[in-house]
Each structure stands twice: as C-alpha cells, then as structure tokens.
C-alpha cells in the first residue's frame, strides 16, 4: 500500500515536525529490490546461505530500508516537490523478512535563504534503531510550486 500524499511547502515547515511510516518487509520486497538494483547477494535471497551467516536468516538490503526514508520525504514530510540534496546513513542492525520497520523523519533545521530542510531520519524495528542518519532536502515555496496561485488576487 502506498503512503497517502501530503504536500507541505517550505513556509509550512517548523523545527520539530515529524512523520512516521511503518512497513512490514516481505520476501517479495527483498526479491524485487534485488531485481531492480542487481544486488543479488545471497544473504538477501538464499535462506540456505543466510543460515550460515551471523544473522542466521535472510536480511533485507540496507539500502531498501534507507529507501523507506525516501518514501516519507517524497510523500509526507516535506512531500511532493521536495528534492534530495544529500543523505547520511548509519546501519546499526539487520532488518529481517517479516520485520516491521518504523521510519521517522523529523525537521531538525530550516535554512530559509536556500529553502533547505535538514531532517533527522531514524528507522527502527521493535523500538531498536536499525538505521539512522540525516537528509538535506530542497523544499519549494508555495509561490515556486504554483506561480499562478501566488499572483492571484486575494479575497
């Protein structure tokens, strides 16, 4: 199921605002990510291979988990029109098939002169952080997103 879209413009943002998305990781998600990216590492695809690793079972690609951050940025906070500038990632623990990942994005800083938002990003499973980092995104103003509406007479 795709997240509901919510459009926020730069002037709508405030430090401390946050959004969370939850996603239960399925085997088909991991197989699909492997197909799209070409990363067919057997730790993600072969239960037999993964059983011999320290994880004991298949794990999701780290960048699949990170991709869930992109889902929040592109659909909820800030939402459509936001453009990624950078993302730092710290992988803290594995995500296994069947885990529910809670992705929380919080506005940490706003840079008005450049219309940038620095966002704290945390992915957790059962309250344990599995990935964290920061994103920097460019967020359009309402006038940039809809120039005709910005020039329309008020009232």
TrEMBL record:
Q: Cite a single Pfam family from the UniProt record.
A: MaoC_dehydratas
- State a single Gene Ontology molecular function: fatty acid synthase activity
All residue ranges annotated as the MaoC-like domain in the record: 21-109
Extract the SUPFAM superfamilies matched here: Thioesterase/thiol ester dehydrase-isomerase
Q: What's a GO cellular component annotated to this UniProt protein?
A: fatty acid synthase complex
Cite a single GO BP annotation. fatty acid biosynthetic process
Keywords for the protein's UniProt record, in alphabetical order: Lyase
Q: What is this protein called?
A: MaoC domain protein dehydratase
Q: Which organism is it from?
A: Methylobacterium nodulans (strain LMG 21967 / CNCM I-2342 / ORS 2060)
